[in-house]
Amino acid sequence: MLHGWGRSLEALRPLGELVAASCRVVLVDLPGFGSSPLPSEASNEGGGWSTDDYALRVKALLDSEGITRCLLLGHSFGGRISVRLAARYPGLVQGLILVGSHGLPRQLSFSARLRAKAVRILVSAAKRIDGLVGTRLFAHYLAPRFGSRDYNAAGELRRTLVKTVNEDLTPLAREIERPTLLLWGEDDRETPPEMGRSYSKLIRDSDLFVFPNKGHEPFADVGSHLLAKYVERFIAERGFDAA
């Protein structure tokens, strides 16, 4: 189970403990989150990591544990990594579960596209001025005002965040041939249900379930029991070797 950005394995622990009744569960703190240290090459000074770098690190972990076949459950940012692993290592990944997963471009309204373009122009101009005269317009004014919560809190992972946010995993999603379960919250504002429907169209053998009154973390609180039922049914119906 791979957690979302800014979270740790603790976010998925309640769901993992429920599912552990029917299969072995491995909870992972991705590098730079929870108790997992930040690799120097993933820091701002190192240029930041892509989700491909994270996928390689997860693959190395699985190899070290002697895991040659698995189901992957990825939430949000962890979903990006899971998509890469499922596309790259079909022999390793026998099934995929995406929960409110990032990785596909969002469909923005005309006004939202105009606003985004204006912000990009402002950011570019501010950075140029900062570089020429030594001001900090971007850091002190634009980033706090227009940067996302994740961006402003990213710290040493800021370049990694920027690099991964701009990735489009559409071609990789098309390559996935393993059974896939898509679980989404109807009230998800970070990865709206439309993204789940897009994944459903791209991944041939996939089933999408959208839960009313659930947001970006549909597994939170009692939601863990709800999602566990769908995960356990997915494992049973597809006949996975989940030992």
Structure characterization notes:
This protein has 243 residues and is of the alpha/beta class. 46% of the residues lie in helices and 10% in strands. It has ten helices and four strands, in the order H-H-E-H-E-H-H-H-H-H-E-H-E-H. It has helices spanning 13-19, 51-64, 77-88, 110-133, 137-146, 149-153, 158-165, 170-175, 193-202, 223-238; strands spanning 70-75, 93-99, 180-185, 206-211. Strands 1-2-3-4 form a four-stranded parallel β-sheet, with helices on both faces. Helix 9 (193-202) links the parallel strand 3 and strand 4. Helix 1 crosses helix 10, helix 2 crosses helix 3 and helix 4 runs antiparallel to helix 5. The longest helix is centred in the middle third of the chain and has 24 residues, at 110-133. It is globular and about 65 Å long. The model has no long low-confidence stretch (mean pLDDT 87).
What's the Cα radius of gyration? 19 Å
Helix content: 40-55%
Number of helices: 10
Strand order of the largest sheet: 1-2-3-4
Number of strands: 4
Mean pLDDT: 87
pLDDT < 50 stretches: none
Which class of secondary structure composition applies to the elements?
alpha/beta
The general outline is: globular
Q: Main beta sheet, described?
A: 4 strands, parallel
The H/E string reads HHEHEHHHHHEHEH
- Gap between N and C termini, in Å? 15 Å
How much beta, percentage-wise?
A: 5-15%
